[in-house]
Amino acid sequence: MKILAIESSCDETSAAVVEKVDGGFRILSNIVASQIETHRLYGGVVPEIASRAHIEAVSGVTREALETAGITVKDLISLAAGKNTSIADACKYLSEVGLCAKDYINRELDNTLSGGELKRIELAMALAKKALFAADLDIVSSSVALRFLCRAELLNKNYDFDKIVEFLKISLGTKEKAERQAKHLLRQKEEC
């Protein structure tokens, strides 16, 4: 079993991938982004600067840790689900976001994957962990977001109109846009 660990206390942001082995863990990667030089100017850690730096660093150190550890797309989906996901389940999640599972299941997370492919893999991870939204859904085109909403069965969970608007507002920005999209989704519920 592989575990992705992310740490962001005080003035360092780090991500590591470890694998459980007999009697302990083996470190597959450990990436650290330090803020020491930034805070040295102020004679100590400045919380506002530290929190901003964590936000800026976490994606990069996580991606580098996954890439260094040779994590595949299937491994990543298993990490997201918090369990050993079967190949069939991982393929299902990938196909639900429009990726050909046989082309992606064993791909490593490296620079050969485009931003759009990575975004779809992120949506597949969200499906695997039964989440309604991935962290950065707002940068996905609205058509992908709407397909994801349908496939994640948001409407089948019998959320009321206001709850759907609340979720949509995350990706669409304004309440007015979210209400329009929610009405559209409710009209097309049968197509999902």
Features:
Nucleotidyltransferase, domain 5, 52% helix, 3-stranded antiparallel β-sheet, 192 residues, alpha+beta, 14% strand
Low-confidence stretches are: 132-143
So what's the oligomer here?
single chain
- By DSSP (H or I, 4+ residues per run), the number of helices equals 9
Largest sheet: 3 strands, antiparallel
Percentage of residues in strands = 5-15%
Instruction: Encode the helix/strand succession as letters.
Output: EEEHHHHHHHHH
**Neighbour order of strands in the largest sheet:** 1-2-3
CATH H-tier superfamily of the domain at 2-68: ATPase, nucleotide binding domain
Structural class: alpha+beta
N-to-C CA distance: 34 Å
How would you describe this structure to a colleague?
Among the domains are: 67 residues, ATPase, nucleotide binding domain (Nucleotidyltransferase, domain 5, 2-Layer Sandwich); 61 residues. Helix content is 52%, strand content 14%. The protein has a 3-stranded antiparallel β-sheet, covered by helices on one side. The longest helix is centred in the N-terminal third of the chain and has 22 residues. The relative contact order is 0.09. α4 crosses α6. It has 192 residues and is of the alpha+beta class. The chain is built from 9 helices and 3 strands.
